[in-house]
Amino acid sequence: MTKKILRRTAIIELGGAGIPSLLLRADLDPPVPGVLLLHGYSASKEVLSNTIGLARAVRGIASLSFDLPLHGTREDEMFEEARTNPFGLLQHWKSALVESQDAIEWLAAHEAIDPLRIGIAGYSLGSYIALQTAAAEKRIKCIVVAAGGDLPATPWTSMVRMVTDPLTSARKLKGRPLLMLHGTNDRTIRREQAQALYDVASEPKTLKWYASGHALPASSADDAAAWLVEQLG
Description:
Mean pLDDT: 89
CATH class: Alpha Beta
Strand order of the largest sheet: 1-2-4-3-5-6-7-8
Number of strands: 8
Number of helices: 8
Distance between the termini: 19 Å
Radius of gyration: 17 Å
Strand content: 25-35%
Oligomer: single chain
Structural class: alpha/beta
CATH topology: Rossmann fold
């Protein structure tokens, strides 16, 4: 039988501000597992919700997504300046981390969500935030990193690593299951960056490759959803 999908768009308080969010779940008796979805650069909450989120909803896993700072409906008059100002970007990164942790808190407190079965999934930019959030939030039981990896080698890498180091975050998972999905021809976050992240993470871990670039094929959403069902029930 096809499950009815419930879609709730709302403003929820994250980081002390009202943030546009989207909760997607099947019409099942609660509580159900819940996963926080974090989108990539220049995307929005709808992008992952309409792909990975939908694939999870039909399998009985709820998902919460929200617009990260400077994305979706949160663009404002400071948009361009913040993107080019390193200090502005640093502040927005910190805001994204606080909001992500608050979103886990929101999921755990929701009447329809089982607080003992919570996961997190991030795509590209969102994968860095997901890893750092998981390192700090022990209620997260499993992590999906899609099109993510270590930082690229640039003149600013060492400075960026002081703010967010995906390798350090991966080491802090300490036995919580990790699924990585990556394209063999990804030129944005390259294959060796994904492999470097995978190598430092502890077991259990899985790295699944696709014959694609940075945009993963539609089958990756189903693969991630099926894996989350195994982890969260």
